[in-house]
Specification:
By secondary structure, the protein is mainly alpha-helical. It has three domains: 64 residues, Dna Ligase, domain 1, CATH 3.30.1490; 80 residues, no CATH class; 147 residues, no CATH class. The chain is 48% helix and 7% strand. The strands form three sheets. A two-stranded antiparallel ribbon has the order 1-2. A hairpin with a 7-residue loop joins strand 5 and strand 6. Helix 5 packs antiparallel against helix 6, helix 10 packs across helix 11 and helix 10 crosses helix 14. The protein is elongated, with a radius of gyration of 34 Å.
């Protein structure tokens, strides 16, 4: 008789198979661990953006990410960042955080500097401090550095402006730029936009009006402050040009309010008119030294395309619609003014 095979594997074979399974399992776990570290969900929804300031290093970035809990496991993020050599590629900027984003994608975004642009939209600012305050909330430079440049004769003279008329350089619109733009580069960008705005067509119109672009903006600021409705701007512009060309004082209430630096004034009184300031057009003939506010594009174009008429006076309508009653003679104007003053008294508006 011959011995029959039992079908059982030798002990040595079993050991090899077990070891193989253990190795395969270990490799699988390791691979899964690497996958989860690099590609697994990591970024949380605690913050919408990561701001990396100019001059920051990896330790600064990591501290922000850890303290604001921007990732589920900051230790794992740190490990991935080191392995991807991110500490040598830190770039400033404003980076959008997508919840669930993996560490690898997150680090690649930071290394490449793929930040989200900022859209600046501004108009109507009166004071440099207010404008700088708005900008400092949208881009990296702080308000102090921005005001310092706005008040720097040496700096703004490079663009052909002075401290009084520098607002003429800022054309109110929407602009896209990166958050970490420097203060001086921001001004350079605004000057480039200013040059684009003042096309040959606009420059030719300004020449026909008899004013420089800066003077156009200075008058446009008054028109903007006077007009509640854009469709009335060309009429108001024509009125002030009539007075200007005749050598009459402009006598624009918004300039008096600006001279008094009290923007709560609703009713200009005789005591306000006494304020001695080059911006007070009740005292001084001609245009103010510069814009009393940042004029809108509509106001600038209204001056360039002013309405030709004989009006020399205007007064707010007594119905408080925001429109004006216009007059050619002072007698007509005084009649309109009495109606408006009566309406103010009826509403108990004293100042």
């Amino acid at each position: 008789m011959t011995d029959t095979k039992s079908g059982k594997l030798p002990l040595k074979a079993k050991i090899f198979i077990a070891l193989g399974l253990i190795i395969i399992l270990s490799l699988g776990i390791t691979a899964l661990n690497y996958y989860l570290r690099y590609f697994g969900t990591s970024v949380t929804d605690n913050e919408k953006y990561l701001y990396i300031h100019t001059g920051s290093n990896f330790d600064d970035v990591y501290k922000t990410i850890r303290e604001k809990e921007m990732v589920k496991d900051s230790t794992v993020f740190h490990w991935v960042a080191l392995n991807m050599n991110y500490p040598r590629s830190v770039k400033p900027g404003k980076y959008r955080l997508t919840p669930g984003m993996g560490n690898r994608r997150f680090v690649n975004m930071l290394k490449a500097g793929n930040q989200e642009p900022v859209e600046l939209s501004f108009r109507g600012y009166r004071l440099k401090e207010d404008f700088a305050g708005y900008l400092s909330k949208q881009i990296e430079p702080d308000s102090v550095s921005l005001v310092r440049l706005l008040d720097s004769t040496e700096f703004i003279s490079k663009f052909g402006f002075n401290r009084d008329n520098v607002y003429s350089m800022f054309i109110p619109n929407s602009y896209e730029m990166y958050w970490n733009i420097s203060a001086d580069k921001f001004f350079k960008r605004m000057y480039d936009e200013y040059q684009k705005f003042w096309t040959e067509k606009r420059l030719d119109k300004a020449k026909k009006v008899g004013l420089t672009p800066v003077q156009i903006s200075t008058l446009a600021a008054i028109v903007d402050a006077e007009a509640l409705h854009d469709n009335e701007m060309p009429t108001i512009a024509g009125l002030y040009l009539n007075r200007y060309k005749r050598g009459m004082k402009l006598q624009a209430d918004p300039t008096v309010i600006y001279a008094n630096k009290d923007f709560t004034i609703r009713r200009v009184l005789n005591r306000h008119l006494l304020k001695d300031s080059p911006y007070n057009t009740y005292i001084y003939t001609g245009l103010p030294p510069g814009p009393i506010m940042m004029p809108s594009i509509n106001a600038i174009d209204a001056v360039l395309n002013y309405q030709k008429h004989n009006y020399l006076y205007m007064c707010a309508k007594e119905d408080f619609s925001g429109y004006h009653n216009f007059a050619v003679t002072q007698a007509e104007h005084q009649a309109n003014a009495r109606k408006f003053q009566q309406a103010l008294n009826e509403r108990n508006i004293k100042k």
